[in-house]
Amino acid sequence: MTFTREVGTLLHRPAYVHVTLSSRKILASRKHRGCRSSTNSQVDLCNLELPAGSLGLPLIGETLNLLLKGDSFGADRNARYGAIWKTNILGSPTIMVFDEAACRKVLKEEGRLVEVIWPDVTADLVGPASLNLLKGEEHLRMKRVLGEAFSEQAVAALMPELEACAHSFCQRWAQLGSFSGYEESKYWAWAMFGATVLGMPGQLSMGRKLARLNDELQSGFQTLPVKLPASPYSRALAARQAMADLINQQIDALQSQERGHSCLENMLALEDPSSSGSPLNRHQISDNIIAAAFGNASAGPTAAKILQYLGAGSRARGLVSAELAAHAPHGPLTPAVLDRLPYTNAVVQEILRITPIVPALFRRALQDFELCGCRVPKGWSVYVHTGASTQQYNQDSFQPERWLQGQGSDSFQEAASSGCPAATEYMLPFGLGPRMCLGRHLVKAALTVLVIVLVRGYSWQMEDPEEQWSVFPTVQPKQGLEVTSFRKQ
């Protein structure tokens, strides 16, 4: 069984070139001794070796192998070297990290052991005021402020928008009957983003528009930054400007009419942490909404897994249906309703485990330090694979019960013998540390609402319930994840 991890490019976009890595040897035989920095263990560091692996050929490293072998590049190395190994790809010597304790340590030590890395074009394509590019105290202050716009309380006010968007797409799917689950889930994700983040109608037209702009914008990270007419980079800059114009038009509309509920509206009420009493300016708002859009790109594939795993006849669907019949057979969805649905929430946790919103995070070592008994040299890239650690539990099997261990329900007793930890601390779908995903509450609520609306009112079948996903160069089902016989119950 294999699973997806985004390896990315230091030269362009570090989040959307994908490599598949085998889960069978996630736990290496090395004994983990935690992380020690060069400031307090210089003698130990001098005696430590680099992780196993190869730096490949001069200059190009193993980049050609990555491009030629695709999925098998990471699978071969992970099987050969285990939970931590070295390579040289895309112009940078790199440490690949899969051990869970090591992942957590690296992410928590940002600013001391590691720093975030982004390609040079990020300032142009995302924006210099985005959280992506802010560092240190400036980043922490801005994130605390923006956190109010995406908080659990803010998301609770968006539940009607989430439910309306889910109903709108389910009704469309019932009219279609058969469709590509992958494509339609992508449109749902962007319509949901438009409704909840921008305060626009959560409809198909908005989903298609935002999906197109996002695809064009992200292509700018995968090409040379050459500003020629009709070049991919110029098209990406045009898409970025179109998104900024859309945001500014919506700000103008919100300021001239009675407001509803959206993250954008919440941001308009926030104060700039660098100036006393002044509101966030438009550049700060648009840059950070565009940054949030990058994270939202993973929500579509994650939602597609809901269709794949909850099709007609699946055991998980039956248990979700029974729980909804007992605790939420009808009526509007609220945070209190969602809290009464442990198995439904476990399904969402498991979907996120298999398809994490933030599969990999990218850092650069600020100093030599020890990781899993090996030395990480200063200046090297460190790729932290946040979803990989949980893949060791039953490999890649879909088992929501793993998150219910100890809850005492007779329906879920399998968890007691599964050997899987039943705590969210064993998964990192949104990252960890000071750069944990800002939209995590929104995405999780959106996926939960979609599950409930789907199972409450609709049934469907998968043309191939076991369809495999390709992961290089992009994550997508190999045959489009065809849904059939989608109808209202």
Please tell me about this protein's structure:
This protein is α+β, with helices and mostly antiparallel strands. It has 2 domains: 145 residues, Uridine Diphospho-n-acetylenolpyruvylglucosamine Reductase, domain 2, CATH 3.30.43.20; 277 residues, Cytochrome p450 (Orthogonal Bundle), CATH 1.10.630.10. Helices cover 44% and strands 12% of the residues. Strands 3-4-10-7-5 form a 5-stranded mixed β-sheet. A 3-stranded antiparallel β-sheet has the order 6-14-11. A two-stranded antiparallel ribbon has the order 1-2. A hairpin with a 2-residue loop joins strand 8 and strand 9. Helix 11 packs across helix 13. It is globular. The two termini are 35 Å apart. The N terminus is likely disordered.
Largest sheet: 5 strands, mixed
CATH architectural name of the largest domain: Orthogonal Bundle
Number of domains: 2
Report the top-level CATH class of the largest domain: Mainly Alpha
Mean of residue pLDDT? 83
Helix content: 40-55%
Shape: globular
Structural class: alpha+beta
Q: Output the number of helix runs.
A: 19
Beta-strand level of the residues, as a percent range?
A: 5-15%
Question: pLDDT below 50 for ≥5 consecutive residues: which ranges?
Answer: 1-35, 408-426
Number of strands: 14
Keywords: Heme, Iron, Metal-binding, Monooxygenase, Oxidoreductase
Family: Belongs to the cytochrome P450 family.
Pfam families: p450 (PF00067)
Organism: Coccomyxa subellipsoidea
